[in-house]
Fold this sequence. Notes:
Elements: H1 2-16, E1 21-26, E2 29-34, H2 35-38, E3 42-44, E4 48-51, E5 54-57, E6 63-67, E7 75-81, E8 84-90, E9 97-102, E10 104-110, E11 122-129, E12 132-137, E13 142-153, E14 159-161, E15 167-171, E16 176-181, E17 189-193, E18 197-200, E19 204-209, E20 213-217, E21 221-224, E22 227-233, E23 238-241, E24 243-246, E25 250-254, E26 261-264, E27 284-287, E28 291-296, E29 302-306, E30 310-312, E31 316-321, E32 326-328, E33 333-335, E34 338-342, E35 346-348, E36 352-357, E37 363-367, E38 370-373, E39 377-382, E40 386-389, E41 394-398, E42 410-411, E43 414-418, E44 420-422, E45 429-431, E46 433-436, E47 440-445, E48 451-455, E49 458-470, E50 475-477, E51 481-492, E52 498-500, E53 504-514, E54 523-525, E55 531-542, E56 557-563, E57 569-574, E58 577-583, E59 607-613, E60 622-627, E61 630-635
Parallel strand pairs: 2-8, 7-11, 10-12, 11-13, 12-14, 13-15, 13-16, 14-17, 15-18, 16-19, 17-20, 18-21, 19-22, 20-23, 21-24, 22-25, 23-26, 24-27, 25-28, 26-29, 27-30, 28-31, 29-34, 30-35, 31-36, 34-37, 35-38, 36-39, 37-43, 38-46, 39-47, 43-48, 46-49, 47-49, 48-50, 49-51, 50-52, 51-53, 52-54, 53-55
Antiparallel strand pairs: 1-2, 1-6, 3-4, 4-5, 7-8, 9-10, 32-33, 40-41, 40-42, 44-45, 55-59, 56-59, 57-58, 57-60, 60-61
Amino acid sequence: MKKILTTIFALVLAIAAGAQTLNVQVGNVTYMFPAAQTGEMTYSDGTTLTVMGRAFTLADITSMTIDNSTVTDNLVSVSYSSAEATVRVAGNVARYVEPTVSGAHVSIAQSNTDAVDGDEITYQLSGTSSDGEFTLDGSYKCTVSLAGLTLTNPSGAAINIGNKKRIQISAKQGTENTLADGTGGTQKGCIYSKGQIQLQGKGTLTVYGNTAHAIKSGDYISVKNLTLNVLSAVKDGISCNGYFIMKSGNVSISGTQDDALQCDLDGTESTGETADHEDEDSGNIYIEGGTLTVNSSATAAKGLKAEGDISITDGTVSITTTGGGTWDSDDAETKAACGISSDASISIAGGTVSITATGSGGKGMKCDGTLTVSGGNVTVKTTGGLYYNNGKTEYTNYTGDTDRIVSSYYSSPKGIKAGVKDTSGNSTAYSGSIVISGGTVSVSTSGSNGEGIESKNTLYINGGTVTVDAYDDAINSAREMYITDGTITVTAANNDGIDSNANLYIKGGTIIACGASGAECGLDAAERYSLYITGGTVLAVGGSNNAVSTASGSQCVLSTSGSVSAGSTVKVTNGSTTLASFTIPSTYSTSGGSGMGGGPGGNSGGSRNMLISCAGLTSGTKYTVTAGSSSTSVTAATTTSGNMGGGPGGR
């Protein structure tokens, strides 16, 4: 005892003489007390030494030394080296931090409930271990700084945060950091936090999820600046509750066996988007900047999947899905892959979105609510065939008639789909819609039964540039369709160019709609409904076209036929004045066509029925329509009599 007292007395004198730091080592943990902060040390009961509020049992102390090392307040450093780890704790937070070290497995209990000296505690992790972990419990927000860390935990999560507060996980600039967990464990992710995770920093973080998710939060996840690579996950790559927001950085997700990025509600009712996302529980995904790249090969997996809304306002989003469809025995229906999928609505106001789906039944974008494009550049390409499965028989490229097949038995490959048509009750109910008012939308579908843009309710095009090259209908709506502005160029290889299953209203814009041969139309409104043209510059080409009905302010139309081919020009002139000129899309094919005069079995070769409308036409006046090398004199009218196609088979 006398020796211990003498040692403590000598240390006190040394500190007073100007030495910088008192190091108290307990096993693999060193507590570092700066001389300027240490003040009075107390020794009591013959067993306990207290420094800056931290009590040490003398029997636990491995050594006490003094040196000139510099201490950074609020910093706890964890260094991994193969099978062991060492911890260094700044003196001003020593009373709040209780580390436990077993080999390279580090567990820390943090007890403060408020900021320490005006700041939060930072845990800086560095080094390498193939059998280690970092576990943290507490009740106040903190930062986990990755400073060149390669860490694998074969028996659980590499980073496991039991703290339900906001946790920043930051990769220091210029550092490479890699985390992996083991297989067959009970952990929810390689990185797991009960609370909110803010992923940030200007370094690089690579994550492997070998049991469940790669990154899992019980609350929201945000990404800023970080370069994040998720290279594998048995479940989702990134999974969270509340909401997900990406502000900047580079995120790449691949090798997942379920959805790449999924966000669910934490509770049972959505708060919707809140101011500054305060206490938000919406299930929403927000992409506000940065670059997000997804490569998904899992069956029926989604690139982005939200229980709430998905909003893209800036940044670059590139998604590729190659997984096929599957039969879901629990829901008794087929499921297929999709680039962006929302149980609510999707909104794109800026940025660049590119989606490719090659699997059977795969879709580009779909939502149950309203899909809105008001800006940005959207490109969607699907090449998979129709997926059919009734729980007994599977076809990955079904080409038969689907009219008499229960809809839950098949998944059609579509470019963009929105809304829900519910026929489960006594009457048909519709919800959701598609609204395009700006930006550029380009859709291509080459697989069987692949529609380009489909709304299960109404569809509005009020601006922007829309280009569709589809196997099936290029643009389709289950209810009314309204076109008031924009530049729309569509081709359909086997069905209608623009197909509305209720009234179709064209009030403005520039439209080139090319349908297939026979009964298929360039413009088609369903039986018992009508096509109204009151404005715009319109060319509809097909084996037939819907009759035009008179409405207040109707614009005159020209109805004729002629030889058209990809890249050829269709022009309307009045003497030397050109009223309208159209270029047939390079994607349009007239091979195999037949029929004349709007019914099945007419136009041969490249000859197609044409419906033209533009400003400057006067009823009863003859105009010259030039299609390719041939010209025809056509009289303008405010309506066309009979049905120039528009019957069954156009839908």
